[in-house]
Amino acid sequence: MVDRSRGGAEPGPRRRGQGELEAQVLGVLRGAAEPVPVAWVQERLGGGLAYTTVITILTRLQAKGAVVRERAGRSFVWTAVADEAGLAALRMRKVLDAEADREAVLASFVTALSPNDERLLRELLADVPEEAPGKGED
Q1: Are the beta carbons of 96 and 64 closer than 8 angstroms?
Q2: Is the whole-model pTM more than 0.85?
Q3: Would you put residue 136 in left (φ > 0), alpha (ψ -120 to 50) or beta?
């Protein structure tokens, strides 16, 4: 019974941050030595997640290009093709793709970087080989 005289409520389960469950599922998949079924992922996540919740997360990760699935009998097995950094990069790309003025978004992003992040970005860009004209342009 909840003691409402103190204005309290029973604490519920901790709510995960946005993308936290996706990162956990991706981490479990990356630890697998071979493609695995949903039940294997569900078991390793613990915490009483419903089977359907795990399928939903895997399907979302597949739509983002972070995992792939292949048929195994009447169901599927799943494999990670991206790590957490790759998943974050996919989210960043999705945000950028949704904006009409890509240059303004990128300019705002770059000007908000810390000096260390700006230096790192410059180093990373310097290491990228030049692409053929027209390739990779949006």
Answers
A1: no
A2: no
A3: left
